[in-house]
Design a protein that fits this description.
Strand order of the largest sheet: 11-10-13-19-16-17
CATH architecture of the largest domain: Sandwich
CATH class of the largest domain: Mainly Beta
Structural class: mainly beta
Shape: globular
Number of helices: 8
CATH superfamily of the largest domain: Cupredoxins -  blue copper proteins
Number of domains: 4
Radius of gyration: 24 Å
Length: 539
């Protein structure tokens, strides 16, 4: 039945597009003084926002470690909580009342059952990011088109059967309206352990990196900030604005890092007197790195995980930073006990056995013809040719010229005006198959199980607004072969790769799991504005 709500939604969409057409039309004589009035109308007509009331909500709880053995079952429920953030009490979403959700720790090859109940006001699923599972029904991809899971409505439950064939740090999050639900703190880690796999350390910590903005509303019927994505100005580690970690002098510490931000790419560093502390990169996404290396900072894109180790030889208050933003502090205490110095900085291990097959055939893979080519770009739905787009391009160029950061990565929202007014009604981010010119969900790739597929991904620097894209492939693992023609010398199994502005990346995907899967950009607002495709793996 066509209701008044349907009618209002149709009117809202037409209003959005009308405003967009006015921006495109020289005859309307838009100039910069109109923007304040336009923005007020935009916010006023965003009539169907998600509820933000905190009345009767329980307080958020800190995350707990839950150790599960093979065959165990665990129950997890998504529901709203409240918490003070930025000197304001706000509504948040949680798993079992915890933010982050519980850290689920299992041994490699274990199988568990995870009964998940939705007590939200929005449909949801649970996606176990990075796991290469046995059964496609438990991916959390919200569609019945290919046999996957039906989205869970309020008070519905679903039992996921999860197995863990890979060692490392993984994470879980929703796969419906990620721009809202994930940004509202629905996420948590899996820790898949294996005896003797990692180096021996004195301390192990898990750090989930995130950012948040208190003043950005969310709408039920449209996704906003789709141009650049949602940057926050409050930095958090493990849901703490002022994260503090205390360790002892001479302790070796392993840090398991996960970036769950909607958009922000972090440049993770630990500093002392403005000088970066060196740490050992030992793994990321899936398994160990081929050769451990010492680094002074690490770029970590949304959805990526990095595992690093370091040792603090001097008592001090170290600062955890990303560029000019402080994320937290590490307090190194002087215990007055002088430990025997262990080899650390020069003891760099190798794990050739995990890459032996690829190394044996590496030149063959380099010479292999590219199987598929993807181009990443953007399309403005209301864009017209000729003089009609003059004012849009003028405003665009004005903000572009105000940008100080010319890096291949957008570290901040330097186009706040254009980003604020952008929505999925106005624009579409695209993955384009360069062989067929199919776009996004019209792409239909088919591969065979155990096939090694070479894919070239090009981030079109000539598009209207090129920016970085972390590209994720569900349920498979891949290696980066080359970046801009330069061969990667250190191999690492991954499930997400950051493709920078103008960069051309060749990846080698090992197709290990059959069925129909998704690949997408892991900037949540780009995903929600179309930047996704499907691929099939067959026996």
């Amino acid at each position: 039945m066509y209701t008044m709500k349907n009618s209002m939604m149709d009117w809202m969409e037409m209003w959005d597009m009308k405003m967009w057409d006015m921006m495109m039309d020289d005859d309307k004589m838009w100039d910069m003084k109109d923007w304040e009035m336009w923005d007020m109308k935009w916010m006023m007509w965003g009539w169907e926002k998600f509820d933000t009331s905190v009345e009767w909500l329980p307080e958020a709880k800190p995350s707990e470690v839950v150790k599960l053995k093979d065959g165990d079952s665990y129950e997890m429920t998504a529901y709203a909580v409240k918490q003070e953030v930025g000197n304001r009490v706000v509504k948040r979403l949680s798993y079992n009342g915890m933010i982050p959700g519980p850290l689920l720790q299992v041994e490699k090859w274990a199988k568990i059952k995870l009964k998940f109940t939705n007590k939200l006001w929005i449909e949801t699923t649970l996606h176990s990011h990075g796991l290469r599972l046995d059964d496609f029904k438990f991916d959390g991809l919200p569609t019945t088109m290919w046999g996957q899971q039906k989205p869970m409505k309020d008070w519905e439950s679903f039992t996921y059967e999860l197995d863990f064939p890979d060692t490392g740090v993984f994470w879980y999050h929703p796969h419906i309206r990620e721009d809202y639900t994930q940004e509202m703190w629905l996420y948590g880690n899996f820790n898949v352990t294996e005896n003797g796999y990692w180096n021996s350390v004195d301390r192990e910590e898990f750090m989930i990196l995130d950012d948040f903005s208190l003043d950005d509303p969310f709408y039920k019927d449209k996704v906003t900030k789709t141009l650049m994505g949602r940057f926050g100005n409050i930095m958090m580690i493990n849901n703490e604005e002022n994260y503090r970690l205390e360790v002892n002098q001479y302790d070796t510490v392993r840090l398991n890092l996960t970036n769950v931000a909607n958009t922000r790419t972090f440049d993770f560093a630990i500093t002392k007197d403005w000088i970066n502390q060196e740490f050992k990169l030992v793994g990321w996404d899936i398994w160990r790195i081929e050769k451990e290396v010492m680094v002074s900072s690490q770029i970590i894109a949304p959805a990526e995980r990095y595992i690093v180790e370091t040792r603090f030889d001097q008592p001090w208050e170290y600062v955890i930073k990303s560029r000019d933003r402080e994320l937290g502090k590490i307090i190194v205490k002087d215990t007055w006990v002088r430990k025997k110095q262990k080899a650390f900085w020069s003891d760099l291990k190798q794990s050739p056995e995990e890459y032996s097959f690829v190394r044996k055939n590496f030149q063959k893979f380099l010479d292999q013809k590219v199987d598929k080519k993807l181009r990443l770009t953007i399309w403005m739905k209301g864009m017209k040719g000729g003089r009609s787009n003059t004012k849009w391009m003028g405003m665009w160029n004005m903000e572009m010229n105000n940008e100080e950061d010319t890096d291949e990565i957008e570290w901040e929202d330097n186009m706040a005006m254009m980003n604020k007014i952008s929505s999925d009604k106005m624009m579409e981010w695209k993955m384009i198959d360069e062989d067929t010119w199919d776009e996004n969900m019209d792409i239909d790739w088919k591969f065979k199980k155990w096939q090694f597929v070479k894919v070239e991904i090009y981030n079109d620097q000539n598009s209207m607004h090129p920016m970085q894209h972390p590209i994720h492939f569900h349920w498979q693992r891949f290696l980066v072969l080359t970046r801009d023609g330069k061969v990667e010398k250190n191999l690492q199994w991954k499930d997400v790769s950051l493709v920078k502005n103008g960069e051309r990346v060749e990846i080698l995907i090992e197709m290990t799991n059959i069925w129909t899967w998704m690949s997408h950009c892991h900037i949540a607002e780009h995903l929600q504005s179309g930047m996704m495709m499907i691929f099939k793996v067959e026996e």
